[in-house]
Amino acid sequence: MLYVLKKPMDSIPVVYSKDFLTDYPTVDCECPDRVEKIYSHIRNIADFTEPGPCGISDLMLCHSEQLVRSVQRDPVIYDIACRSAGGAIKAAELALQRPSFALIRPPGHHAGRDFNGGFCFFNNMAVAIKRLVSKGLIRNALIVDIDLHYGNGTYDIVKEDGNIDFVNIDSASREDFFNDIEAALEKASSFDMLCCSAGFDTYIRDWGGLLFTEDYRKAGRMLASSNPHFFTVLEGGYYIPDLGINVHAYLKGLLEACS
Ligand SMILES: [Zn+2]
């Protein structure tokens, strides 16, 4: 009989492209330094993979032709937004094997079917899930959004989709935050895939003023323990000095869940 020793994971697949350092026109706080800072802090536990751009047919799974055309008016933004959505697709595909993280910008959870805003152009998360469902790779998915802000765009796209459940975590205290995540994850194992829109703007020194670095580790561990087919996409997070250590802590939580 052949015994295979399962080696503990020592790195997390992270989807990243230097294109995300493009200084495209957006608000000052959603700057290339965000991903640069994260990239430099997670190198020792990240296994980087470069994504391609998504196709227009992927965008049309979630967005109206009118919205896609409105983004196309600025070719620089259109290219980077397609690359970002392509990064989410790549992370979702990797999650068929093991938990992954999409280190991407622009973020996506404020982009709905026929609107966008809040530094978002296309809904990276929704595009990724709908593409996997359309290819028959998964039947359904649960999205947990832990960004400080409500994922109004994601809700708008998935609200009538019986295959995709969406839970937005909006907590007033650290204790509530973990209780709310625990409640959201009760049925996580019954879905083919678990997906997290992770914003780090809930951080104690960021706009949310709520969570500490170690809390991201715990959140990552709780999420990745709930379904082996799990991926995360970066949404917000604007306190740049600590953004790297917070994402590093989150990835450590993923590793702990897998060991
Ligand atoms: Zn946010």
Explain the layout of strands and helices.
Blueprint: E1 12-15, H1 33-42, E2 46-49, H2 56-59, H3 65-72, H4 75-94, E3 100-102, H5 124-134, E4 141-145, H6 152-158, E5 164-168, H7 174-184, E6 193-198, H8 213-226, E7 230-234, H9 240-258
Parallel strand pairs: 1-2, 1-3, 3-7, 4-5, 4-6, 6-7
The structure holds zinc ion (ZN).
Zinc ion binds at residues 147-149, 199, 201, 235-236.
Count of β-strands = 7
Q: What is the CATH domain class?
A: Alpha Beta
Radius of gyration from the CA trace? 17 Å
Number of domains: 1
Unreliable sequence segments = none
Q: What would the principal axes of the Cα set say about the shape?
A: globular
- Main sheet: which strands, in order across? 2-1-3-7-6-4-5
Please work out how many helical segments DSSP would assign. Answer: 9
CATH superfamily: Histone deacetylase domain
Specify the CATH architecture.
Answer: 3-Layer(aba) Sandwich
Describe the sheet with the most strands: 7 strands, parallel
Query: CATH topology, what is it called?
Result: Arginase, Chain A
